[in-house]
Amino acid sequence: MDTRPAEDSPARESGSSDFIRSIIDSDNQNGTYQGRVHTRFPPEPNGYLHIGHAKSIVLNFGIAEEYGGKCNLRFDDTNPEKEELEYIESIQQDVRWLGFDWEDRLYYASDYFEQLYQFAERLTAKGLAYVDELSADQIRETRGTPTQAGTDSPYRERPIAENLDLLRRMRDGEFADGSRVLRARIDMAAANINLRDPIMYRIRRVHHPNTGDSWCIYPTYDWAHGQSDWIEGITHSICTLEFENHRPLYDWFLDALEATPPKRPRQIEFARLNLGYTVMSKRRLLELVREGRVSGWDDPRMPTICGMRRRGYTPEAIRSFCRAVGVSKTNSQIDLAMLEFHLREDLNKRAPRVMAVLDPLKVVIENYPEAQVEQIEAQNNPEDPAAGNRTLPFSREIYIEREDFREDPPKKFFRLAPGREVRLKHSYYITCNEVIKDPSSGEVIELRCSYDPQSRGGSTPDGRKVKGTLHWVSAPHAVEAEVRLYDRLFSVANPSDDAQREGVDYRTYLNPESLRIMQSCKVEPSLREATVGTTFQFLRHGYFCVDLQDGSAANLVFNRAVSLRDSWAKIERAEGGQR
Ligand code: ATP
Ligand code: MG
Fold it and tell me: Of the candidates 436, 471, 506, which is a domain's last residue?
């Protein structure tokens, strides 16, 4: 069988190697799993996925594709208080959108609740688990500290038969919530705190999105996770670094269960993705949503996959970013600029170029015939000849960008000014002859210009040079739009760390200027039919994604995905790295 990925599959974008792939290579050489590679992406359905999860998705699904293996999607749904169907659905949508397919392998830890319970009875019967009646607080207090051993619970030496009886009665709902737990009987003096008789089951009468009310005891993540991987025949359990010191516990459980076959998974830990100027904890993202500090999980400022999608990010850009970041064993922070770089790279190839005036200033071309309209041919994307051409109407009245005109131009300002000639993109040269102002405010409200009829197409017979080229939109043909400009959600690179260090709330670092709304923008008429989710390059402004389009001119809304250049890097350079 040819297991090479198809030409256009996401795995083709890779080709890199790293310590995880080296481990898999050596497992394959040694026949550890008979050449099988089976990974999984195991989200807890307690929030929407973010760019950090994307890294894990790209890694797990990517590895499976590269090695001709499989990757499961498994919901680790052991904590029903915080889990919701909405999250289960959004997670599937986001993984699919990123370009990955779990085929028929959609699983839930809750699929294994019965099996996990039988395993728990088996450990109890072997004297390796016991029912404890200490309260949650007492359990915490007797757990010890990293430097101090814990102390044994008075219930630790209960006879096996009594433990089994109590465990069954816990399951049958005889005891109140929180009154008892099942604990693994390992070692209260273990150096690794995770081995100090960790909790396996707690009593909670909570409705579960998948199992309804059939259970009143729920397994802990630590008890469910390793066994779920093993049940599914996962070969390589790739997870983030914080699980490194849980690995001995997962091994202990599988040893205690005498689990074989399948051969137990090899757990490999890598560093989480951390991004600057945002937060990535689901708890905090949920707070921002609940408190209305953003418009929702899909607010285009959020680091969530759905927020990024709405902002105009493409799956290709996110995948290439994740691959470029790579995997490592040490935590570090990635610059937002790197993410934006990958987006620009991708959109530059595919986004059609259009003209949009965000802050319009009217220009009347006095020597242009009143009723005349010319249809000018314009290339959709110089990077992609297959994108073809479109026509742009040109007429006597146009809009240009307000900032493209200065009455009193400073040096090096090559755009329009009184008496100055500039080129209009795709059309004629115009010269500014007169400036009309609002008599009361003194604000410039209109420019009176003339055009050179021989300059169409960007040059004149006399070879006259002009320095500036402006974008424009024909006024009678312009479509009105709202444009939303986004900046970083937080005004400091490490909101969580800074907040902790300074003893303040992380929300104090929210950037009050993270959203700027421009109304009454004028965009070229070809955008009248633009569909939601399509991204365009607005010449000289950046890439913009259609957010809302209900057919009426007043309800065409664009989100700026990213500017054309990294203006922040420039500012940081100019200020010597200080901001
Ligand atoms: P929680 O605090 O709720 O556990 P979480 O972000 O770890 O939050 P999970 O649903 O447990 O959420 O994550 C699913 C998978 O994604 C896990 O394997 C986890 O290791 C991985 N993951 C989560 N955040 C990141 C990140 N920032 N970088 C890389 N992988 C991540
Ligand atoms: Mg987690």
Answer: 471
Q: Identify whether 465 is part of a domain.
A: yes
Q: Is 476 contained in some domain? A: no
Cα–chain center distance at 109:
24
What is the rounded distance in angstroms from the CA atom of residue 308 to the CA atom of residue 313? 5
Average pLDDT over every residue of 159-179: 98
Model confidence pLDDT, tens digit, residues 81-105? 998 999 999 999 999 999 999 999 9
Does ligand 1 have an atom closer than 6 angstroms to the CB of 43?
Answer: yes
Sign of CA dihedral 171, 174, 179, 185: negative
**pLDDT of 576 higher than 60:** no
Ligand 1 nearest-atom number relative to CA 46: 3
Nearest CA to ligand 1 atom 23: 53
Cα separation, 399 vs 392, in Å, equals 14
pTM, 2 dp: 0.92
One-letter identity of residue 148: Q
Boundary (domain end) residue, out of 248, 270, 292: 270
C-beta of 42 in contact with ligand 1 (< 6 A): yes
Do 145 and 162 form a contact (C-beta atoms < 8 A)?
no
Do the strands 421-424 and 469-470 form a parallel or antiparallel pair, or are they unpaired?
A: parallel
Bridge partners of 229, per DSSP, are: none
Q: Is the CB of 156 under 6 A from ligand 1?
A: no
- For 316, residues 6+ apart whose C-beta sits below 8 A from its C-beta are 13, 99, 346
What residues act catalytically? 44, 272, 282
d(CA 255, CA 159): 22
Same-domain pairing of 384 and 492 = no
Residue-level pLDDT at 567: 55
The C-alpha atoms of residue 538 and residue 402 are separated, in whole angstroms, by: 16
SS3 of 216-254: the string is: CEEECHHHHHHHHHHHCCCCEEEEEHHHHHHHHHHHHHH
- Residue pair 142/153 in contact (Cβ under 8 Å)? The answer is yes
pLDDT one-digit tens code per residue, 376-392: 999 999 999 999 999 99
Question: Whole-angstrom distance between the N-terminal and C-terminal Cα of the chain?
Answer: 56
Q: How far is the CA of 321 from the centre of ligand 2 (A)?
A: 22
Domain that includes residue 387, residue range: 356-471
Q: Do residues 217 and 204 touch, judged by C-beta distance below 8 A?
A: yes
